[in-house]
Design brief:
CATH architecture: 3-Layer(aba) Sandwich
Shape: globular
Mean pLDDT: 88
CATH superfamily: Response regulator
Number of helices: 5
Number of domains: 1
Strand content: 15-25%
Structural class: alpha/beta
């Protein structure tokens, strides 16, 4: 059994949500669990951050207000865009949304999301979902 490399880069997670309270709360939970966090508050920022930061996982809200210039993005459009980016097509996406799960969960999973979590987020469930999607050892301390 090989030991993990001590200088290995922590997994980088992009949190994409227009709600700054959600961004801050999720960032704190992720950092406390050893993840590197980058954030985006609108669709065009998500695409830019993914291209520049190369995240290992994306936590993505479904609903965003229109960007400056009136471009309207939602989580589905963002996922479609990401799947067409060579550097992002295989990056897993977990949807984090306050929308009605009965209305959106199945559609999100059919669109390629790895999981759907309903807000308000439970920190333990969030970390468990992230570890499952990233294939990490679930025995890590929370």
């Amino acid at each position: 059994m090989t030991e993990p490399t001590p200088n290995a880069r922590p997994k980088r997670i992009l949190v994409a949500d227009d709600n700054k309270v959600i961004l801050k709360a999720v960032t704190m939970v992720l950092q406390a669990n050893g993840y590197e966090v980058v954030t985006a508050t609108d669709g065009s920022a998500v695409v830019k951050v993914v291209d520049q930061e190369k995240p290992d996982l994306i936590l993505l809200d479904i609903l965003f207000p229109p960007d400056v210039g009136g471009i309207s993005w939602d989580g589905f459009a963002i996922m479609r865009w990401l799947r067409n980016m060579s550097g992002a097509k295989d990056v897993p996406v977990i949807i984090i949304s306050g929308t009605d799960p009965e209305k959106y969960q199945e559609r999100c999973l059919a669109a390629g999301a790895a999981a759907f979590l309903h807000k308000p987020l439970d920190a333990d469930k969030l970390i468990a979902a992230i570890r499952a999607v990233l294939g990490e050892n679930c025995a890590k301390a929370v």
